[in-house]
Amino acid sequence: MLKKFLPNEHVKSIFDIKPEKLKAQGIKGIITDLDNTLVAWDVADATPEVTNWFKEMRAHDIKITIISNNNEQRVKLFSEPLEIPFVYSARKPLGRAFKQAVKQMNLGKGEIVMIGDQLLTDVLGGNLAGFYTIVVVPIVKTDGKITRINRMIERRILNYFRRKGKITWEE
Question: Which of 62, 117, 139, 165 is the most buried (most CB within 10 A)?
């Protein structure tokens, strides 16, 4: 069961994820988390760098959907100016939001990558849904209350994976 928490890939930030590599892997769609993946959890708008990353993905015909456990106002405020489809109150790692995103994108599971900063929500949800998963280093070290609890559990899982030689990267 613990292997469902293991991402396929680890990168420092979304900016290390290049459209050419995704296309070479047969990826045509990205489902991404919002808070601490794209911007800090307490930042409302996309940075110019994030906006450019989205433009680069679109230029390579890669579809993007944001899935967040956060509320509608937060996710809508971020996503609408970018014209990015979104799912709010997603209840990740449960499957409903992932199924909704797959349907929106009209792609197969093997054509989608899930990108996020948390093992307990993003990676687990993505793996259960059958996607390729990429975990990024959280943008900031601070988190909301529930996420802080998740991070404590995550640290135990990461330490287990390190002891077993399943991961070599550091936080």
Answer: 117
